Amino acid sequence: MSTRILSEALTGTSVDLPAGTPLLEADGIELRFGGTRAIDGVGFDVRPGELFAVIGPNGAGKTSIFNCISGVYRPQQGSIRFLGAELVGERPDRIAKRGVARTFQNIELFDNLTVVENLMLGRHQHLDYGVLDAMRYLGRARRAELANRRIVEDIVDFLEIAAQRKLPVGMLPYGVKKRVELGRALAMEPKLLLLDEPVAGMNAEETEDMARFILDIRSELDTAMILVEHDMGLVMDLADRVMVMDFGRRIALGEPAAVQADPAVIQAYLGEPEGST
Amino acid sequence: MTATPRALRRGRPELYSDYAADQAIWNTPAKRWSTLAVLLVAASLPWFLGRDLLGLGALVAVYAISGIGLNLVSGYAGQISLGHAIFMGIGAYTAAVLGGSPSGSIRGFELDLLVWLPLAGLVPAAVGWLFAPLAARVRGLYLAILTLGLLFVGEHVFKEATWMTGGSGLGRKPAEPTVLGFSLYEERVVLGTELSAIGVFYLFCLLLLVVMAVLARNVARTRQGRAFSAVRDRDIAAEVMGVPLLRTKRLAFTLSSFYAGIGGALLTIVLGFTTPERWNLLLSIDFLAVVLIGGAATITGPIIGAGFVVLMPRFIETFAGSLPEWFVSTAIGGTGLLNVFQLQRLLFGAMIILFLVVEPRGLFGVWIRVRNYFKAWPFSY
Questions:
Q1: What's the pTM?
Q2: Does B189 fall in a domain?
């Protein structure tokens, strides 16, 4: 059976919105843990098909933003609207069903399952048969499993992990696990893809590979992405717009070049100029 | 899409040319033939073995059915349950009330097996469904304690509801396994040989085990089974992937209780009699042993585990006679250090510890190791 290119396998990733309408609109998000404000009144919007990057020093609240969008945390204040629906207060699995997929900073794969099974889990919400169909494994369940297996294999092919497809994920090296996690998120056929440090801990070559995958996903699927990353080179090369955070607050938002020249950003990363305090 | 030529497939059992062949339940010739061989041997046993051993065989099949149930919730979905015995008890009493005969104050409706057997699964499944939201709130040790609580509540109810159970220490007779007037527990001439009643019932239990094992395997290897494993391994990631936690855990408890109930109903028939005390913690632990010794998160595992847990005490009993008298006394009131029952329990406990420490994947894991050794032979890995 021939493999298909990604855009033929995953058809539900692009959205048709009237011009100027944002895909995701976050407004005044405030997330507190006791007295600590992890996110302090942050707002931003992500346009359809855009690659939106979030950067900032450690502890700035980048991953917390992801956790708010995907429903793992519930911010005390603010709203996050995605395709017109409010995400704050929704269960993570409902948010996933709306078309938001993510990867994790510290790989959160299902270690005892194989690569294919992990990706099939990404297809969970696209499999519509019930448990009684599954028991018989005839007709509906079998058809759905085989059709989705084929989609999964197209993703395996795209990410070049065919050699590992039947291995339990726990046995794989770090770089491959990162790819599998990207694959699992892709399998969800997302309209918005959240990538949490996709190249953390990778060497130059692996970083290049990952950058290529991200660019290919963009050009083939037209999926909007939010990227949290510490690798400045990668962010500046790939992102359409960059939001910079520090201590839970948004300190800059704009095109990569403009953000790089922003004095507040330089101060957050490099500290105050000598003698200014 | 063309099938791979036979000559090309020979010696390459994992050469697939379509996903259907790869995803089939028995996806290599070796699996197909070995399953068939085991089935044939198991099905021919009534023609060779005596009543006593066939009773044990039926017990293995029944233990395997319930064991598969516990493995769905504890092995696959990772929700440790000590309450399995209660779901078995609910199934057993549902069957006994619907299919048993009344005596004195004990109720019995003498219905057909086609009525009581499905209900013996569905009633516990409904209880499991109701119980799941409570169980889904906690995990790990807390869940173990919560299910332990269920066990005590259940045991109390069983002791008090004498119209159903006959009461503490007295007990009642089980359901009659009669399908449309045809008794499955009666001597019959099959293929020119007269089979004992238990032999006939053994065949029925075996058939039921095969069907239920295949159904469970189909669940385990598809959408919901993967969701079970995801919830076990990383529940937050599973939720973010679109797996609803409560619904998934609820399904695991419901399915598991269904299997438990069927197993419980058949168990009372094999044993011929049941008291409310039977459905206690020890029985639950027996089934944890079935799962752990057999192999967690597999379907074959609990079947092997059931064989081990049921047959080991008999094995010890048989060979205790050849041990020195000062160590194990076989006669009642003997002077030995241990009696046979104590030796059985001691070795049983030791086995659980041994497997947890040395081979957490159980006997099935041992088999995988042996298989991989010969796959790679003559290389060591």
A1: 0.92
A2: yes
